[in-house]
């Protein structure tokens, strides 16, 4: 009995070793044959039409496909490709026709009437005005738990509904008939059309969604699509495939047949895949930039995402404007972006990012008009510093920088400490690194002195950067309160809405007040993404808000 | 034996209950919210959403509600993956992790044991030294280093195996090998030490004196006794490997449980943290129990509660 068990184990061992030997042998063969295949692909590509297939990576699984629940880049990207709202982001982030063919705006600019085209969902049901009404009401309904519904705050009654004081049915959106959608706003919103491209504003078909119940959007077959692509083969945490949607109203414009998306979380893995030709694009972290900086596929794209030191004015030292100006001027930001970040990020002496919005009349970039509002200069820094210390009656001060706990964040904070202590005599900096979620808590409670913080836009208007600093603004949390600033923001949101140029100028003035005069923040840098792109991928538009890319017009040309 | 197993099963549920309670309260001490868009929400907006998920309730009430659900088998719904049930999430992700872990343990143990036997019977020769070097390297160098090296040299340069992703068996080769290195090293060392000790025992000398061949002595009499301690460590090691290994899964983009577990902690995804912890603990305790029972079967000297039966 015992003997037989023992010999069984031995036999098993033997069989398994043979299996392993077979495996490694097979592996070798497989490698050879796949090499052969890729060679053939290349030849075929040269002679006949190139397969219109794009292979890319995402850094995470799709957290949700329910459009009103989306909060992150991955979800926004897939939603933008598979669904379509009233308008869609086109080249240079211009809103282009989507489900709406055209729209009219009322005299007081508070009522928009959208005329929908004949389009259908992938199950054959027509897309109607009711689909928008249903989805938007669902988004503002507090029972839904949407975390991005504040983006709808300009719709009539939206804020009251989200707070639970009114019913979702009272939202300012109405289906006049099947193809006409009437939207009422609380006040005129000059960028409303660009807002309608945002995921939260996508339509959902009530009958279908309710029919799916709590299974809705959990798998690719529990969804219907009205965008250029449909989601198929969604394997959680592994990847998914976007297939051209033949029923899309503008299907003839769409050239890509397939976008294969795989989830890869390690940059090194992505780079290795790019090197073996398995993928057409890879994002680079700073440690890879040196290796690929001279590579012909290397590209950078400046994102409108700003990083800065927040200064808590409830702290008696930071309440002094000279101290704040000294901190603004004391850091050499060129070295910060070139050495520590090293990914094309821009040293920032401003708060509204470059390449984000333009003057409504002249078309000049916001940044070109306002230019640099401060400059890095140890002399200037020292001057302000001494003045500030004198006013405070102190010679030595200690401040703490609250920052993130990633490697880059820590390195950056070390650098800031070094710069500030070197250029501001008598200053001691302590560093505190905490996880992101905890930093948000500390920020909410204003339990910080200096904070390395960041902000990205929610819609294509400078207001997304400007209005957060009004007195007691939900994200202000610096203690900054300035009547003139509040008035500029209020005017831009109310009286100036029908005068785009004046409104734009009010925001230019607000930015100057914020950075140059009041030194509320010490801007550090504007983030860029460094990437490798295979040269045969054409016409992928990069966006600075909403989905990161637009693939509707993309194609492969070898 | 039956009584012993029943007793152990009761202890198992008590242990699970204590683990669940401790994890729950520790988890609630973690700063931050499970909301994915907390950076953009104002405190008031956040409060409205937390209310919806019952996260504004006092923690003891949340605890009672959660435990009541667990008893009925309901592990709740994930926060980071809107609407997805925790049980489903774990079941989806455990497949790849278990495949890699099982393969790593099987191949690792086999090679390790063979290597250990080689060192023991060729004691103090060049073979022994080589095997020792392999074992020391395997123990001291972390698996992700092997993973990264293999990915670059075997995946990118030689292109023998796919660089990453999950699919056919060829995708499992490199992650399995990376995970198995440690298992090889540990089992080789254990086997060597134990086998040397066993081979020095009187009954082995007796066997040799009787004229039993060298092969028979080692494989028939030696190994069986030498492998007992190995079972003790291989059990928990197997669970560790099968329930997912964060770094290897990240490097090879394997959709496994380890990555998922760590991210649920980073994002304060309370139901997933709890569910995965319970799942992991359950298997660990179960395997320890099985190992204890196996002990008695393999080695009559350690037959537990034998007296009572």
Structure in words:
- The complex is a heterodimer of chains A (558) and B (309).
- By secondary structure, chain A is an alpha+beta fold.
- Chain A is 35% helix and 20% strand.
- In chain A, strand 4 (100-105) and strand 5 (111-116) form a beta hairpin.
- In chain A, helix 9 packs antiparallel against helix 12 (378-392) and helix 16 (483-493) packs antiparallel against helix 17.
- The longest helix of chain A is centred in the N-terminal third of the chain and has 46 residues, at 2-47.
- The radius of gyration of chain A is 27 Å and the shape is globular.
- Chain B has a domain at 93-308: MetI-like (MetI-like fold).
- Chain B has 13 helices and no strands.
- Chain B has helices at 2-29, 43-52, 59-71, 86-121, 126-140, 143-157, 170-199, 202-210, 214-226, 228-242, 246-251, 257-266, 270-298.
- Chain B starts with a helix and ends in an 11-residue tail after the last helix.
- The mean pLDDT of chain B is 86.
- Classes of the chains: A alpha+beta (558), B mainly alpha (309).
- Chains A and B meet through helix 1, helix 7 and helix 14 of A and helix 2, helix 4, helix 6, helix 9 and helix 12 of B.
